[in-house]
Protein: Eukaryotic translation initiation factor 4E type 2 isoform X7
Amino acid sequence: MNNKFDALKDDDSGDHDQNEENSTQKDGEKEKMERDRSQSSSKRKVEQFWRFYSHMVRPGDLTGHSDFHLFKEGIKPMWEDDANKNGGKWIIRLRKGLASRCWENLILAMLGEQFMVGEEICGAVVSVRFQEDIISIWNKTASDQATTARIRDTLRRVLNLPPNTIMEYKTHTDSIKMPGRLGPQRLLFQNLWKPRLNVP
Structure:
């Protein structure tokens, strides 16, 4: 019996049941600690972002053509970026006056990882226009219909959209084929969303 665990395998005295129970209890405590640490990290991440965000102008307060981009670090808000080129975006057109609330709900949902699609979310854009405002959320894989459907459903829930709201999904390859659709832009911020920010 060179291995210490071999003795436990051959012992039928019942003592190993208590050892297994203690081990299971320790595993449960370890899992709880991991969950708590993850929730705490997520909370700090949102709080840190909120300190920055609370000093920004809201989309509804802007005039003219303006775009806010919020993308994961290292991903450019361009269709041609490696992370975006095989993806697409959900587009929602909003009447004036709703952009600020919807944008805030969307970015907090992204930071809080409410979409539950792993690394699939690349970023989001709010476009302020004269007649309407447009919100879109970009993902990596347009061909994954289950993931795009989950993003759509979560987006509908997070933005509290009525069931009859029209949501359009457009692949980036289709967007590339239609040049000249952007018009003038003012890039206010990008690459600020760091989904796994380690804050001490």
